[in-house]
Amino acid sequence: MNNKLGVFLAGGLIGAGVALFYAPRTGVETRAMVADKAQAMWGQAQGLGAQVAVDAQQFYGNAAQNAQQVYGAAAANAQAAYTNVAASAQQAYVTASDRGRQAADAIAQGAQAVAGRAHEAAEGVKPVFAEKNDELRAKIDAARERIAAQVAKNAEQASANAEQATEELQAEAAVEQAVEQVEETVEEEQKAE
Question: What mean pLDDT, rounded, does the chain reach?
Answer without folding.
Answer: 78
